[in-house]
Amino acid sequence: MKKIILLFVLIATSVTVNAQTSTRKPITNDDYNKWSIELAGGFNKPLRPMKYFTSTPSPYVVDLGVRYMFNTKFGLKADLGYNSFQGGKKSIDFNTKYYRTDLQAVVNLGRMMDFETWTNTIGLLVHSGFGAAQLEDQNSAMKDKMINFIIGVTGQIKLSNKLALTGDFTTILNARQNHTFDAASVKRGKGFSGILFNGTIGLTLYLGKNKKHADWVILIDKDLLALKNKVDSLVDKDILALKSRVDNLENNLLDSDKDGIADYLDQEAGTIPDHMVNSKGKSIDLDNNGIPDELESYLTKTYANRTDNDSQQLTDSESITKLVNGGYVAAYFDFNKSTPTDSSIDGINFILNYLRNNPSASVEIIGHADEIGNALYNEKLSNERANSIKNILLKANIAASRISVVAAGEDTSVDKGSALARKLARRATFTIKD
């Protein structure tokens, strides 16, 4: 008993030290599953106290447990166990049953020992705790209640992200056991005098919406770790500091909107791609009408020769209004999402600049959805999409009185069976009102 407890303490101490001295940084958060259900069955062998004996090994044992992992290394398990004991070939017949319930701490040795550096499918758990048990004789009314200490090791083979095959070896020590396992005699022992071994094979079912369970999540980027260790062995802290400064310089030189001006000098983020900007990253707008000159030139060229019902030539403002109201400027959304895609920022920014430079103008935002799903839900989703863009304009200090939203619901103008066409349906369009 003392040796077993000492072994468990040494294992727990070693893995704790390993966890505390590790300098590796996690690259994931809590985006992994923590709950699991465990079912196993197999053989057992009661060692003492016994008057007679069972076969070696003897059937059978069944175990059902529910486990919760606080993180990728430590967890808690509650389980129920059932053992059946029967005499061997050279023993007299007896039939006793052993029921137990335990609360156990769980340590994921596979993560502690970095199993992921050589395998992605094999794991190792250690579990230990205390509980209550009862031994019953099926041939009499004997019921012996006791407490137990349990410790075991579980090997894992991952079959999928939701299922794992397990093999477990567990030792159970009973205290206050007053009858032998075969119920043949009364033997009042002191301390943990009862010893029982269980060996089982089972399955673990992982619960949750995330892709992986805590048993298998890899929190260490091995490539970055290997690179860091190599660098640490070759250079000193001064060179590492220099490397950090170079990295920061490279980040400063990024050009997110691809206008040729580094971000740290760019005073106008999100300019329209491929349009000319000045040395400060601002769109060139010599007439200060809020429309980049290059785009204004295109609009003038496109609409210059078109006339309305009165045969009057369209002005630049009218051309822009016709362009927007015709659906040429739109924001798009991913499936079942109400946040516009990154590629939609230019369209929203276009509307924002127009409203800023035309204080008397207002805009109506029309939300749309594809035909996948319930029509009532899609109408609600189209409203959320329109309101999402409205909130962007509100945060950009456009007055709420200048913005209205319309939930257009499902767009039935596209082929419902075409995934590409449905992308075009998931949008918000604009109507400018002067």
Written overview of the protein:
The chain is an alpha+beta fold. It is built from nine helices and twelve strands. The protein has an eight-stranded antiparallel barrel. A four-stranded mixed beta sheet has the order 9-12-10-11. β6 and β7 form a beta hairpin. The protein is elongated, with a radius of gyration of 35 Å.
Largest sheet: 8 strands, antiparallel, barrel
User: N-to-C SSE series?
Assistant: HEEEEHEEEEHHHHEHEHEHE
Mean pLDDT equals 82
Pick out the low-confidence regions. 12-28, 302-315
What is the CATH fold-level name of the largest domain?
Porin
Strand content: 25-35%
Key terms for this structure?
8-stranded antiparallel β-barrel, 2 domains, 60s Ribosomal Protein L30, Chain: A, 434 residues, Porin, alpha+beta, 9 helices, elongated, 4-stranded mixed β-sheet
What secondary-structure arrangement, pairings included, does this model have?
Elements: H1 2-21, E1 35-48, E2 58-69, E3 74-86, E4 95-108, H2 109-112, E5 122-137, E6 143-158, E7 163-175, E8 192-207, H3 222-234, H4 237-252, H5 293-303, H6 316-325, E9 330-332, H7 345-357, E10 362-369, H8 375-395, E11 403-410, H9 419-425, E12 427-433
Parallel strand pairs: 10-11
Antiparallel strand pairs: 1-2, 1-8, 2-3, 3-4, 4-5, 5-6, 6-7, 7-8, 9-12, 10-12
In short:
The chain has 434 residues and is of the alpha+beta class. The protein contains 9 helices and 12 strands. The strands form 2 sheets. It has an 8-stranded antiparallel barrel. Strands 9-12-10-11 form a 4-stranded mixed sheet.
